[in-house]
Specification:
single chain, alpha/beta, Rossmann fold, Alpha-Beta Plaits, 2 domains, 4-stranded antiparallel beta sheet, 14 strands, binds adenosine-5'-triphosphate, binds magnesium ion
Length: 337
């Protein structure tokens, strides 16, 4: 059709990032919950925002989705300013996750019908769309049950289904799999991949490195309201070491000597774990492990236990920030200027 020519060269549509945030700030009282977050999310990609409890993920999402007004910085969604053009932004985004977006006493069908009608679908279209989505999310059998009888996984899927009624080009998924069992989690991942294959852009918040790894083209690690690292999953892993080595020694008086030997051998910082006799280190190449054991044996250090684990969010944080991620109650020493 002739109209397609327009889209080929000068149209901004495909070139415009789905999200462009520049120095977003949100204050709650004196607390800088979001403290200068900048993000660039190209269309058709999955962007992972990875961070521990209280890092500022939900607050960032809410500002981008026009649900919360930023106290500083600016953000555009498909070129539309979230503060100046909230309606344009709202028409392009779907939000799901940590919001009570559904009514407990109503059935799944009723909830989807209500959302559909709110979005302006006719009764007939609303019914069709609801049936379609319930099927897509494997909720057909539970369609008439009230939500209070739904499991966590079913709720999550219904919540995502609700956010897809309007088929938004940009979806905010706020911790879509937190608390789900592994099978439901894998289903959710498949659904997200399918959405992106259909052309959607997804901003996904998560506390799980493996989830960001599975789904996200790029990942921003956020901590205390700031982006402390960003890049592809491989880039982040490289900064952390792809795995984590754990050693328990037979004789704990060897600990310090073993630490020095391992540090020299691996060329990285080796930490002593709280239980004396334990050592941990980031490990980029797991195939080095046998050599390492030989080295320790040659030094007369006996190893009781050895483990090699994929990196956890804790290790990402420890490596990048130098402090532990969860349960950090220290007062941030920052002014609110
Ligand atoms: N409405 C609010 N009023 C006051 N403080 C808030 C409010 N919302 C969030 N906060 C605070 O802002 C900080 C960031 O919260 P946010 O919910 O954005 O974190 P999060 O990364 O989404 O955490 P989680 O993984 O637990 O969902 C937290 O310290 C939180 O207590
Ligand atoms: Mg949150």
């Amino acid at each position: 059709m002739p109209g397609t020519v327009v889209g080929m060269t000068s149209s901004p549509h495909s070139a415009v990032p789905a999200i462009e945030a520049d120095g977003l700030v949100k204050l709650f009282g004196k607390q800088r919950a979001v403290d200068g977050v900048s993000l660039a999310v190209p269309q058709g990609t999955v962007y992972g925002v990875l961070g521990p409890n209280g890092a500022g993920k939900t607050t960032t999402v809410r500002m981008l989705a026009t649900l919360l007004r930023p106290d500083g910085g600016r953000a555009r969604v498909f070129g539309h300013d979230v503060v100046a053009e909230p309606n344009a932004v709202r028409s392009l985004v779907g939000v799901t996750g940590q919001y009570a977006s559904v009514d407990e006493d109503l059935s799944a069908t009723e909830n989807l019908m209500i959302f559909s009608r709110l979005l302006g679908l006719s009764g007939r279209d609303a019914k069709r769309k609801s049936t379609e989505l319930l099927e897509e999310f494997g909720l057909t059998e539970a369609a008439d049950k009230p939500l209070k009888n739904f499991s966590g996984g079913m709720r999550r899927r219904l919540d995502l289904a609700a956010s897809l009624i309007s088929h938004p080009p940009l979806l905010f998924l706020d911790e879509p799999t937190t608390g789900l069992d592994p099978r439901t989690r894998a289903q959710m991942w498949d659904t997200i991949r399918r959405l992106v294959a259909d052309g959607s852009t997804v901003l996904l918040t998560t506390q799980y490195l493996d989830e960001a790894d599975q789904l996200a083209d790029r990942i921003a690690v956020i901590d205390r309201g700031r982006v402390i690292a960003d890049g592809t999953a491989n880039e982040l892993k490289a900064s952390v070491g792809t795995s984590s080595l754990g050693l328990v020694l037979v004789d704990r008086t060897d600990t310090e000597r073993a630490r020095v030997i391992l540090s020299g051998f691996l060329g990285v910082e080796v930490s002593v774990t709280p239980e004396a006799g334990g050592l941990t280190a980031p490990l980029t190449d797991a195939s080095i492990t046998p050599e390492l054991l030989i080295r320790l044996r040659d030094e007369g250090i006996a190893v009781d236990e050895i483990t090699v684990q994929k990196p956890s969010l804790d290790e990402v944080f420890l490596t990048i920030t130098g402090h532990d991620a969860p349960g950090d109650t220290t007062e941030p020493e920052r002014s609110i200027a």
